[in-house]
Amino acid sequence: MxxxxxxxxxxxxxxxIRHDGADKVTGRAQYGTDFRMTGMLFGRVKRxxxxxxxxxxxxxxxxxxxxxxxxxxxxxxxPPPTVGGGGPGPGGGGGPQGARFQMENFMASKKALYIGHxxxxxxxxxxxxxxxxxxxxxxEYEVLTPVLDVREAMAEGAPxxxxxxxxxxxxxxxxxxxxxxxxxxxxxxxYKLGDIEKGFAEAEVILEREFTTSMFHQGYLEPxxxxxxxxxxxxxxxxxxxxxxxxxxxxxxxxxxxxxxxVTVVPMEIGGGFGGKLFMHVExxxxxxxxxxxxxxxxxxxxEEVFESGPTSGTYVRVKYGAKKDGTITAxxxxxxxxxxxxxxxxxxxxxxxVFGSYKIPNILIDGxxxxxxxxxxxxxxxxxxxxGTFAGESLLNEMxxxxxxxxxELRIKNAAKDGDDRPWxxxxxxxxxxxxxxxxxxxxxxxSELQGENRGRGVSMGYWSNAGGETSASASVNxxxxxxxxxxxxxxxxxxxxxxxxxxxxxGIAAEDIWPKVVDTDSVGFTLLTGGSRTTFASxxxxxxxxxxxxxxxxxxxxxxxxxxxAAVTYGDDGIIRGPNDSEGKERKLSFKEIAAQxxxxxxxxxxxxxxxxxxVGPSFGGHIVxxxxxxxxxxxQILRYTxxxxxxxxxxxxxxESQIQGGAVQxxxxxxxxxxYWGADGRMQNASFLDYRMPTALDVPMxxxxxxxxxxxxxxxxVRGVAEVCIVPPLAALQTAVAEATGIHFTQVPMxxxxxxxxxxxxxx
Amino acid sequence: xxxRIIIQATINGEEMEFLADERDSLLEALRERIGxxxxxxxxxxxxxxxxxxxxxxxxxxxxxxxxxEVEGSQxxxxxxxxxxxxxxxxxxxxxxxxxxxxxxxxxxLVSSTALLEKNPNPTxxxxxxxxxxxxxxCTGYDKIVRAVQSASQKMRGQ
Lengths: 767, 158
Fold this sequence. Notes:
The complex is a heterodimer of chains A (767) and B (158). In chain A, 26% of the residues lie in helices and 24% in strands. In chain A, helix 11 (386-404) runs parallel beside helix 19 (732-744) and helix 15 (496-508) packs parallel to helix 16 (536-563). In chain A, the strands form six sheets. In chain A, strands 3-5-1-13-10-11-12 form a seven-stranded mixed sheet, sandwiched between helices. In chain A, strands 7-8-16-15-14-9-28 form a seven-stranded mixed sheet, sandwiched between helices. Chain A folds into three domains: 32-146 and 218-307, Alpha-Beta Complex (Aldehyde Oxidoreductase, domain 3); 315-467 and 618-764, Aldehyde oxidase/xanthine dehydrogenase, molybdopterin binding domain (Aldehyde Oxidoreductase, domain 4, 2-Layer Sandwich), CATH 3.30.365; 470-615, Aldehyde Oxidoreductase, domain 4 (2-Layer Sandwich), CATH 3.30.365.10. Chain A contains 20 helices and 28 strands. Chain B has helices at 26-34, 88-95, 105-118, 124-130, 142-155; strands at residues 4-11, 14-21, 52-55, 58-61, 74-76. Chain B is globular and about 50 Å long. Chain B has five helices and five strands, in the order E-E-H-E-E-E-H-H-H-H. Chains A and B meet through helix 1, helix 4 and helix 18 of A and helix 1, helix 2, helix 3, helix 4 and helix 5 of B.
């Protein structure tokens, strides 16, 4: 259901069948893992079995003697790291050593820093042979003590991962130089608003709790992959599925010290990413193996290896709220420590922005710490870092509502951040739909209904995500029959071919089906940033609008030529009809888009237009969820009875795919809240690296997810678009925490609240 | 190098003979030896259902079947579902926006096809139970379940 709609559109808001749909339901679509080439070799990665160990010696002679093995590489075969901070890859938050850390994560040179850390790679004529060869690469280690928990890693005397790491001040107004002392704390960031001591002095009720979250994996179904080949004159081509072909091109060109024009990245269809495919994994190793053998080398990692690479951070968060008895929040304080994995760069800022994201609180102090531990380097995962922070903040706010005996939605509405209010990290809010989402929740039949029955509970939570903009390129050409080819730089992870084509169709007044959108390689379109941050429908939509406006101008010029009149006298209607001055007999002159297209050849040749946009006029998104649960007190299992998700989409271009984003995000958040977990052995090995044991929700675990789309248009976009993909993963954790608290009387402070966790607490509670 | 074997089977209605490594799973044989890459490899241990195919009338995860076992068998993959145009299930998946990235879609379509053959009018719970061997990480399942319900209605002429 769409709650508000003030302007009538022809295409926007409809539900056309996606252009790439038929290929995806018939098996024709080619994903990264499907790529093949004659004579291609198959590569595999040899990984460290130790969480912290010095690599003493690597001997590949037995592997190289195996029939079919073509090459083995170690870190010594990789190009030396470039100087300076890394790009968006691991180490992107890592300060001056970023580029080196990034290379070290691709392959360890001196020390292995987590179980699964690549130490060598092999390629062979057959995938089975490559697998056999792994056991024949002999690696000698000196095993060191690992540190696996964020608080232990911060403690005095903890094992140090990187001798040269120093704590950087990453605050918005950083001033202090780092202390010259080896540490696992890569950075400290502080947000300050008002006077925190005054805020707590004014409070009549103060609540404080500690919360922890497990590591979670994005769980994209298609494993990470890459196939690389070098031409004899030094041109590198990479075929793979990623969220950022142009960024990968940049990184590969820097790594191999070749011009950008000598690298082509071909985006194959991508089988899920959720942030995990923003970064390179095996791609550089495939490129080095290809360089060494002179052949194309394809690498696909196993599911176990996927779990051992690029999850999101485990966290420790302490939140303190102060409020007056009338529900006015006077102070909010948070201490947030995020595991970065083995190299700096956790998604800390997402947590710091989200912990009090929906509220106007006069006095705020947030301290965030980015901490290295002997676990896989963390990567982005949908609203990176935010679910953990918001889990803490919103769970405690619900407890505050209970303590104050105020309705949790009333408490939120009373303290809601509105247009023009200060943000904790600086600046002010623009036009936001925060309050509209809260009001919609409060008035919804789900919220006003009474929840009856034993062992049942209801919870609510808000969520905030910034969304992103930035560089995007696209081009379009008008065909002689009035159809349009749309060439896109941004990878389509979930239907953005359709949502972008629809915005072009709206602009020029033709049907979405008359546009054929295509995602192309890096040779064929201008630089385009990552598909991430919920930026694609916003940024590619802007590009589509600019393409459309240019096409309108060119079509008007052609009409003027046909009618031999001044272009200023020709108008382009939103219905795609071009009208000119009356003819000599006084009759109106008009031509349809198709009619003019048929005369392109006679009026100057074909029309092809390009757009390169770099828009920062992003509209933040707010969402809120309501959930009803029943807890089985014999097993600890939480059954979700009803779920409703509300979200400000700005404008829902294709409501079907907006709903699907909200539903998918909610279910990923439900997984975090209830079942998904990394079980770590004391040795730093993940004990459950399979889809059987890392329990992502199945169809049987969840009910229908009802959605309510609210439209508070983003004034910074021609059609009002805000990103929709990320905020929806934020609210489920606290909403479920509170629902379970109401059902059991126990305030859980960790996720997942798996059956084991709940049952143990119930037994301890003497129930 | 392990030995190669010759396998005869009927795949999507076509009798064929192909060479496979004796260690190949049916999934590897389909993808790497025959080039039918519509069947996806996402976990390779039977937990995600992306490689579902119908083998002699039974729904199986092809990663858990050895290629050598399918001698003389009838196999239907996602490529074999559509005959004249899309099937009602495929059409419903598109109309209901039941896919985002699409990598799990072949498995869901094959599994749902097997379900509707066995049970033309399943309840929501029966659909969810049957499809619980197929993981989807994008959609939260809501629209997939609706697409199966919609196809079931269409196929029963409602």
